[in-house]
Amino acid sequence: MRLDVVTIFPEYLDPLDVSLVGKARARGLLDVRVHDLRDWTRDKHHTVDDTPYGGGPGMVMKTDPWGDALDDVIADGYEHGATRPVLVVPTPSGEPFTQDRAVELSRQPWLIFTPARYEGIDRRVTDEYATRLPVRELSIGDYVLAGGEAAVLVITEAVARLLPGVLGNAESHRDDSFAPGAMAHLLEGPVYTKPPTWRRRGIPDVLLSGHHGNIARWRRDEAIRRTAAHRPDLLRRSAPDAFDKKDRALLTALGWYQDQDGHWQPPAQDAP
Ligand code: JQB
To answer: Buried b / exposed e across 63-79, counting CB within 10 Å, b at 16+?
Structure first.
């Protein structure tokens, strides 16, 4: 997969040299190119922003540096044999970036990221490129960042770990909390490793029992408890047939009940 990132803060993307993404690059599974948007300015001050039409606070990123940069990056990618570019635009007004989106992006051969600053990019730039290639405007969550670079790091890490050959078998993603499938989406329960006692704290006996059936049941119960506490929306969304008899007994013990169509609902005091 080829990734291009156009930014006024290329050094913000230095973490792409490290860890999982860095290793994927070193192994030739990922070709990452970071570009400085100011290389496509023509004035003495390398201006990338201007005042907003209609007035108001802040500044807006100008059309010309983005248009010239994207034209060159797209041409360079094609010259190197890349195909089917997808433009990924991080923005607080984008669609939610989810695991499903990560899977979709991981199947693309070429992603071009345009992390902005200030109040974002003049709308005509995304409108123009949307006539030539798929454009995904994405938000990584309901909070406000000062720019899109951190979102590029997040999206890249979520996508890179899905690429064939990036994760070893041991750390494969069959058990991901948000991996899609016909099961309930559950958060992970607690995990433990050596030593067996630390500051007088032990390990749950069941994990030392060697009884694999009981261990699997305990883990699932802990996952359900944690999901009920932290992400009740995930349980409410799960199909009723995603829960077995012991799941249903636990949910009932936690005060949950089934509505008319069988979906689980939290106890009235903490609904919805
Ligand atoms: C400028 C960004 C995010 C990119 C994602 C997320 O554009 C703005 N509008 C209102 C307030 C602040 C900004 C600053 N800003 C470019 C830019 C914010 C992304 C962003 C984002 N993806 N929060 N904020 N989840």
So the answer is: eebbbebbeebbeebee
